[in-house]
Amino acid sequence: MGRLIVVEGLDGSGKATLTASLARKWGEQGRTVARLAFPRYGMSVHADLVKDALYGRLGDLSESVYGPALLFALDRQGAAEDIEAALAENDIVLLDRYISSNAAYGSARLGGPAHPNDFAQWVADLEVDRFEIPRPDLQILLDVPVLLAAARARGRAAGDNNRALDSFESDSALQARTAAMYAELAAGQYLSPWRILKPEADGSVAIPADLLGPA
């Protein structure tokens, strides 16, 4: 059985870059790696409904905290069997976003650490206990400064006509609260052990040798 490893962080933090780098390095060590990113836009009706909500196309559902969170969770429930199969066939299953994204963003929408709430526990109860979505073995938090992540997200949107900022990405206050929630979840070892990686001065992220494991 393989290990389920998740990369978490703000929009524009560099999750896709890190997951690609980790997959390449583990592959060079002879490990088999399966990758998946959430939400699964274009692959899951629930993910596509989430996208509609994030762009304000679902009326007052877009204003709900619990409604979109349920759709995010249903997207992962739909992928649970595929994740289990990938774990049976690979050394590592590497995910770009997972359950903790739901917990962090939803909690932040309710006010974040300054307004304590039980949303993260609600997400865990829903996704792990009720939907039986596999629990991660390790979560890696890309702790990138909020302003840097926002600048990257804006640059990405400017370079792709199909990648306009959604309502979460364009809300700088929400992103700041989400960063604070991620820090709180990591400190509390939410769902699994966590590792925190911070960028170098040039914005790159060095991967610690012990994270990669023995060659």
From TrEMBL:
Its top-level enzyme class, in one word, is transferase
Q: Which Gene3D superfamilies match?
A: P-loop containing nucleotide triphosphate hydrolases (3.40.50.300)
* Alphabetical list of CDD domains matching this protein: TMPK
User: What family name appears in the similarity comment?
Assistant: Belongs to the thymidylate kinase family.
Origin species: Nakamurella antarctica
Q: Which PANTHER family match?
A: THYMIDYLATE KINASE, UMP-CMP KINASE 2, MITOCHONDRIAL
HAMAP family, per database record: Thymidylate_kinase
Keywords from the UniProt entry: ATP-binding, Kinase, Nucleotide biosynthesis, Nucleotide-binding, Transferase
**Organism ancestry:** Bacteria, Bacillati, Actinomycetota, Actinomycetes, Nakamurellales
- Name the record gives this protein: Thymidylate kinase
For this protein, the record's Pfam families field holds: Thymidylate_kin
